Amino acid sequence: MSDKQSVGDPVLNDDQTKTDVDVKPEAGDAAQRADEPSLRRGHEAQQPTRLYKRRWLIVLLFSSYSLCNSFQWIQYGIINNIFMKFYSVDAFTIDWMSMIYMLTYIPFIFPVTWLLDKKGLRVIAVVATAFNCVGTWIKVASVKPNLFAVTLLGQFSCSFAQVFILGMPSRIASVWFGSGEVSTACSIGVFGNQLGIAIGFLVPPILVPNVDDMDELAHHISIMFYITAGVATFLFILVIFFFQERPKLPPTQAQATARSIPPEHYSYLASIRRLLRNWPFVLLIITYGLNVGCFYAVSTLLNRMIIDHYPGEEVNAGRIGLTIVIAGMVGSLICGIWLDKTKTYKQTTLAVYFMSLVGMIVYAATLSLGHLWVVFITAGALGFFMTGYLPLGFEFAVELTYPESEGTSSGLLNCSAQVFGIIFTICQGKIIDHFGTLKGNIFLCVFLFIGTALTGLIKSDLRRQNANMLAKTTERSNCHDGSMAEPSIFNEEQF
């Protein structure tokens, strides 16, 4: 079916009901085909828009396989000392099991975002779940002390899958969801990634206790890897059968306009150049990288920081990590709903960034007090704002860069985050080794302060919101002067 559909001849999905329909004739599509007179009256054309119930299945499925992938990012680092003993490697080597996710992303993000623009969401989803599934089974075969290279290969396969995952939440939100729910949908997409990290903090310390017998330890590790492989395989099958490219009708006028751009008029390299000349977006790339890079460093090194002050508390280190991410998930959803209600992108982003800085300062100051309950509270406050910032950055980027591809803008943000994440993790790790955890956390506070200051300099140019507002204004004007086509109505018998 073509991207544009005649009002008089709709094609409806089986999963639609009367409550699904959100058909609004909208004017101003200059690219409307001349052979569709039923969509035109006078000088203005209109396109119907619709919300499909399937959109919730799509975002839920994406969140699920994103969860499975992000779980594996931190499953080595949170029991760093146990894997060091099992594979007879040092702490820095185990840190690379997390940092490989960041390193792999950097060279592959540009070809992957090009593939996303050319092939669409479904191809990207299938490839992501395939590589994630393969990686989990490679790790199942690596549970021997002399097979560290094999487990590294499995982790590399999962990290490659992540390249196909991180940039998708804002793209799925724009392609499937209405203008009043895109930020909430993006938050749900990010929610799955955060929940996976939370489970990655909680489950490995429980499944893999710190025992001295190598055979028993191998058994526990094997159980964890088999469970992960089973879940990854199940999700791969679900994606093949149920993940859909896009709805037949666009959810918003902004998305309809984006669809109307002929493929031959789009250049991926030209899009990159336009984005890098967009100074508000360039500032956002830097500030997003600073904030999320700090989060990556704290997550990767959390086991080392907690064990340094509270020896033998591997399980509680995982619980503290869980607290950080669960609080962040709540923050993400609240921020997403707030953005949909208020559209105050810059103000909300700046406020959350500033509170991330405050949370990092308080966490650094209280880590060494000797009271784990205090660390739980301060870590939770830090996570609420620092992790809650993730969907804010995605959605602010889409607003600043519309009508450029959401996958490309998200890819640049994530690339910045991976670069800063590697730098901050290595530097903070070395600082902790030589000067202690307090100095390492102060190091991150400095960069969060810089990021807060730069966020205040970002000009709030909400292009996507302006496009939707213009479409509504044009529609009201056409209704007033009688030049708009008759409203299209989908009767119940047509479902």
From TrEMBL:
GO terms under biological process: heme export
* Positions of transmembrane segments: 56-76, 96-116, 123-141, 147-170, 182-203, 223-243, 279-298, 318-338, 350-366, 372-392, 412-432, 438-458
Supply the InterPro entries for this chain.
FLVCR1-2_SLC49-like, MFS, MFS_dom, MFS_trans_sf
Region (Disordered): which ranges? Answer: 1-46
Name of this protein? Feline leukemia virus subgroup C receptor-related protein 2 Calcium-chelate transporter
- Annotated Gene Ontology cellular component terms: endoplasmic reticulum membrane; mitochondrial membrane; plasma membrane
Residue stretches of biased makeup (Basic and acidic residues): 15-44
Q: Which GO terms describe its molecular function?
A: choline transmembrane transporter activity; heme binding; heme transmembrane transporter activity
Which Gene3D superfamilies does this UniProt record tie to the protein?
Answer: MFS general substrate transporter like domains
Q: Which reaction does it catalyse?
A: ethanolamine(in) = ethanolamine(out); choline(out) = choline(in); heme b(in) = heme b(out)
Coiled coil ranges (UniProt) are none
Family under the similarity heading? Belongs to the major facilitator superfamily. Feline leukemia virus subgroup C receptor (TC 2.A.1.28.1) family.
Q: Write down the membrane topology.
A: Multi-pass membrane protein
Q: What does this protein do?
A: Choline uniporter that specifically mediates choline uptake at the blood-brain-barrier. Responsible for the majority of choline uptake across the blood-brain-barrier from the circulation into the brain. Choline, a nutrient critical for brain development, is a precursor of phosphatidylcholine, as well as betaine. Also mediates transport of ethanolamine. Choline and ethanolamine transport is not coupled with proton transport and is exclusively driven by the choline gradient across the plasma membrane. Also acts as a heme b transporter.
Protein keywords: Cell membrane, Endoplasmic reticulum, Membrane, Mitochondrion, Receptor, Transmembrane, Transmembrane helix, Transport
Q: Which domain of life is it from?
A: Eukaryota
Where does it live in the cell? Cell membrane; Endoplasmic reticulum membrane; Mitochondrion membrane
**Family annotation (Pfam families):** MFS_1 (PF07690)
What residues does the Major facilitator superfamily (MFS) profile domain cover? 56-463
